[in-house]
Amino acid sequence: MTGTYGTPRKRMRPLTWMLLAAGGVVVLVVAVAAVVLLWPPGPRPLFQLPVACGEKWRLSTYPSHGEYEVDMIPTKGSAWGRPVLASFDGTVTVAGINGSLGNRTPDNPDGKRGTGGGYWVKIDHGGRWETQYLHMLEPPMVEVGQRVKQGQQLGKVGSTGNSSAPHLHYEQRRALLKVETWFDGKPSGITTDEAEHIVNRTSRNCAADEEP
C-alpha cells in the first residue's frame, strides 16, 4: 500500500507503540500523584494519646531525633508491654517490620539493637491524616486493611528496631508530611529537634464508661 504520490506508508513498529503507551502511563501516574499531593487535607482528627486512659506519659524529643517525632514512656512503672492504642478511628495501611528487629526484650533489655522502627503500624485516618507507631514488642495485633476504632489495641510497647530502651515512637502526618502532634485538641509543643524537650500528658483515650 502506498501513501501520497506513491510513497510507502511507514508502519509503527511494536516497540514504538510500547514506548508511546509506557509514556502515556507515566504521564497519567504523575498527574494522579500531583492531584493527590495538591489535594487539601481535611480537618485535624481529635487525636488522643495512644496509651491507656488515665495514664500519665512523658513525651520527649532530643537533638537529631527528627522534627515533630515524639518518644513516649510512662512516668511511673515499666514501659515494657504497655498497650499501644489507636489515636483515632482509621484503616491500617502498614502492620509489620520496619528495618530489623534486634533482640532487646524484657528478659534481655541490653540485647543487640536492630535498625529502623522494628514492629510498627501505620493508620490512615482519612482527610490525608496518618499516625505511626514504632518499636513495638511483638508483631502487631492488627492487619493491613483492618478498620480500627480509637482506643483499639494495636500492639505492645517494646524496643525493637533502632531503640535504646523500651518506648513508643509516635508521629502524626498530614498530606505525607510530619506535623506537630496534637492530643485531645491541644498541641504537644514538640516541634524542632534542636534541643531536648519534655512534656507530661495524661491520656484521655477513654471508652464511654471510663474516666481519665
Automatic annotation (TrEMBL):
Q: Which residues form the M23ase beta-sheet core domain?
A: 81-174
Q: Name one Pfam family in it.
A: Peptidase_M23
Which Gene3D superfamilies does the entry mention? Glucose Permease (Domain IIA)
Q: TM spans, by residue?
A: 17-39
Q: Which UniProt keywords apply?
A: Membrane, Transmembrane, Transmembrane helix
Keyword Acetylation appears in the UniProt entry: no
| InterPro entries registered for this protein in UniProt | Cell_wall_metabolism_enzyme (IPR050570), Dup_hybrid_motif (IPR011055), M23ase_b-sheet_dom (IPR016047)
The protein in question is named M23ase beta-sheet core domain-containing protein
